Amino acid sequence: MKTKIATSIMSLVVVPVHSDAAVSNGPVSYIVGGIIALLIMGYLIYTLLRPEKF
Q1: How far apart are the first and last CA of the chain?
Q2: Which of 20, 43, 50, 51 matches a 20 to 30 Å C-alpha distance to 7?
Q3: How far is it, in rounded angstroms, from Cα 26 to Cα 33?
Q4: pTM (2 decimals)?
Q5: What average pLDDT does the segment 27-45 reach?
């Protein structure tokens, strides 16, 4: 039973080197990640400043 669970988790985690998921889109992925990080940081700062709204 444990080997089936470990195998299924490993198959979800491991990405082959030459697959499409392992290839980066260049600077576009960094820009999108930066925008998402700024949005999350802004939300966290807003919730720290206005805790009564949440």
Answers
A1: 43
A2: 20
A3: 12
A4: 0.51
A5: 93
